[in-house]
C-alpha cells in the first residue's frame, strides 16, 4: 500500500501506459493470494471464495486510486489503472476456475 501512495523516483523511461501491465499482474497475484487464503484457512465454499476475493481485490484497487487522487500531491488516480486492476482480478478468477475444474474432472 505504501508504494501505491509514495512518489516514484525512477530513472527508467517506460512506454506510455506500460504500467497497466504491472497493475494487471499485481492484481492477478493479489487476487490469487486472497483466494488461496480464504479457501484454505476459512474453509468457505469455492463460489463464495471467488466472490469475496474478487470483491476485496477490486475494492482495494479502487480505494488506492481514490487515495492517490485525493491524498497525494504527486500521484494521481487513474480510471485506466482501475480497469487494469479489474482485468488482473478477472484473469486470476479465470485461471483459478480452469485449474479447479480441471482438478475436479481428473
Automatic annotation (TrEMBL):
UniProt keywords, alphabetically: Membrane, Transmembrane, Transmembrane helix
Residues covered by the VanZ-like domain: 29-99
Pfam family membership, one: VanZ
Keyword Transmembrane: yes
Coiled coil region boundaries: none
Stored InterPro entries: VanZ-like
Ranges annotated as spanning the membrane: 20-42, 49-70, 82-101
Protein name as it appears in the record: VanZ-like domain-containing protein
Record keyword Transmembrane helix present: yes
